[in-house]
Design a protein that fits this description.
9 helices, binds zinc ion, 4-stranded mixed beta sheet, alpha+beta, HSP40/DNAj peptide-binding domain
C-alpha cells in the first residue's frame, strides 16, 4: 500500500500546531485502539499509520524533513520507518498512552511470540566513501537462530510440546480479588510451548550469539549521525514473530584536507605571497580531483572563495553543495640566501606601517568601528 500523506492521515492542516497534531492523533488512536477493535486488522493498520504520522509530525526535525522532502527524504535519513506492530507503538509512546488513556496504555498483557530487539551498529566511514557512496561489509554480533536445533529449542530427535498450563494459548486467566486478569503464562513465558529436553547449544532458547556478515550500501552524501535502517536484520524474533531491525549509525572519519558542513566541503589552501599580491594560478583539491584556480591580484590571506557545485551530493539526490576554500598566504619557516636577500630588499621599499594602516582603515569602513 502506498504511504499516505501524514497530514491526510491525521486529518490536520499543514500549518497545524503541535497541540492540534496531538489532539488529532489522540482521537484517531482512541478510535482504532486495538483494545477497542480486537482482531480487526484494518483498525490495527490505521492505528499504526496514525502512530507513524504522529511520530513524524510531533518531532520538529522529522516534520521539517518531511515537509521539504516527503517520505523519500525521511527514508533517506533512516527515519519515518513506521511501526511493525501495535506493540511497537505502545513501547515507543508508552508514556503518551498513559496520558491519552488515563493510565495503563494497555490492559492486555504482552503474550505470545515477541519481536526481536532492534540493534544499533556504529559504522565509521571514510570521508570519501561518505561523499561518493560505497558498499561496506560489517559484522554484527546479535542473537540469531540456534543452528543445532534450528530454533526449536528442543534437543535433536525431540520437539517442543504444547504447554499444559495454558494449552498453547500463552496466556492464563488469574483471579485477583473480584477481577479476572489475563496474564502471560508463567510456565511457558507466553510461547505456548514447553521443552522437556532442551537443546544443549542454546539451553532451550532457540537462539544463539552469532556474528552476522552484512553488506551495507552507503548512499553518497551520508552525514555524521545519519541512520540507515536494515529491516529485519536485528535480533531474531520468537518463532512466528518478526526480527528486529538494524540501525546503522554513520560516523564520519576525519580527512586530512577536507571538512564538512552538511553538503558543503570546507578546506584551506595555501598561496605564495607573490601570488597573493600579483595574482596567479594555483591548484585547489576537490573531492573530484585537483582543479586550477586563478587567484586575483591583491587577495588577502584568509579570503574564502566558493566553488559552486563542488561539494557533497545531497543524500536525497537533489544536487550538490559547494566547496568553500580559504586561501591563506604560506609563510616559509626558513628562507634560502637569495630569497632572504630579496625579502630584505622588499622590506626597504614595502612599508609595513602603511599597509597595516590601510588594512585597519578598510575594516573600519566595512564594520563601522
Ligand atoms: Zn538450540
Ligand atoms: Zn503456557
Amino acid at each position: 500500500m502506498a504511504k499516505r500523506d501524514y497530514y491526510v492521515v491525521l486529518e490536520v492542516a499543514k500549518t497545524a500546531s503541535d497541540a492540534e497534531v496531538k489532539k488529532a492523533f489522540r482521537s484517531l488512536a482512541m478510535k482504532h485502539h486495538p483494545d477497542r477493535n480486537p482482531g480487526d486488522k484494518d483498525a490495527e493498520a490505521k492505528f499504526k499509520e496514525a502512530a507513524e504520522a504522529y511520530d513524524v509530525l510531533s518531532d520538529p526535525e522529522k516534520r521539517a524533513t518531511y515537509d521539504r522532502f516527503g517520505h523519500e527524504g525521511l527514508r533517506g535519513q533512516g527515519m519515518g520507518g513506521g511501526f511493525q506492530s501495535a506493540e511497537d507503538v505502545f513501547s515507543q509512546f508508552g508514556d503518551l498512552f498513559g496520558e491519552l488513556f488515563g493510565g495503563g496504555g494497555r490492559q492486555r498483557g504482552k503474550a505470545g511470540p515477541r519481536r526481536g530487539a532492534d540493534l544499533e551498529y556504529v559504522l565509521a566511514v571514510e570521508f570519501m566513501d561518505a561523499a561518493k557512496g560505497s558498499e561496506q561489509e560489517i559484522q554484527v554480533p546479535k542473537h540469531g537462530l540456534c543452528e543445532t536445533c534450528d530454533g526449536s529449542g528442543a534437543k535433536a530427535g525431540s520437539s517442543p510440546t504444547t504447554c499444559d498450563l495454558c494449552k498453547g494459548a500463552g496466556e492464563v486467566m488469574q483471579r485477583q480479588a473480584f477481577f479476572q486478569i489475563r496474564t502471560v503464562c508463567p510456565r511457558c513465558a507466553g510461547t505456548g510451548k514447553m521443552i522437556k529436553d532442551p537443546c544443549g547449544s542454546c539451553s532451550g532458547s532457540g537462539r544463539q550469539r552469532v556474528s552476522d556478515k552484512l553488506k551495507v550500501t552507503i548512499p553518497a552524501g551520508v552525514d555524521e549521525g545519519m541512520q540507515l535502517r536494515l529491516g529485519g536484520k536485528g535480533d531474531i524474533g520468537d518463532k512466528g514473530a518478526p526480527n528486529g531491525d538494524l540501525y546503522v549509525t554513520i560516523r564520519l572519519k576525519e580527512h586530512s584536507l577536507f571538512r564538512r558542513d552538511g553538503v558543503h566541503v570546507l578546506c584551506t589552501v595555501p598561496m605564495g605571497f607573490p601570488t597573493a599580491c600579483l595574482g596567479g594560478k594555483i591548484t585547489i583539491p576537490t573531492i573530484d580531483g585537483d582543479v586550477p584556480y586563478e587567484v586575483e591580484a591583491g587577495t588577502p590571506s584568509g579570503k574564502v572563495v566558493v566553488l559552486r557545485g563542488k561539494g557533497i551530493p545531497s543524500v536525497q539526490g537533489r544536487g550538490r553543495g559547494d566547496q568553500h576554500v580559504q586561501l591563506v598566504v604560506a609563510v616559509p619557516k626558513t628562507l634560502g640566501p637569495r630569497e632572504e636577500e630579496l625579502v630584505r630588499e622588499l622590506a626597504t621599499v614595502f612599508d609595513d606601517k602603511v599597509r597595516e594602516k590601510s588594512f585597519w582603515d578598510d575594516l573600519k569602513t566595512k564594520f563601522n568601528f
